[in-house]
Predict the structure.
Amino acid sequence: MKIFSVIMIIFLIVSAICASAIKNLLSAVIVFMAYSLVMAILWQQLNAPDLAITEAAVGAGITTLLFVITLKEIRGVKK
């Protein structure tokens, strides 16, 4: 299980760097969603299921939805 945690932490670091470096905003939101899901998995590995559920619901769910709606509205204004 330790190897799995190390792989997840490496993926977490890579996705954090990619989310900040990507120029396309929709792609950055998708990478941020992946970051939140990996973080939820890591919280579960650390035996914190309440934080894992909150991270999955808020980080990957609601925040991603709000970002996508905001991007849709911004692109609608520019036209």
Summary: The chain has three helices and no strands. The chain has one domain: 2-78. The two ends are 50 Å apart (CA to CA). The first helix runs from residue 2 to 21.
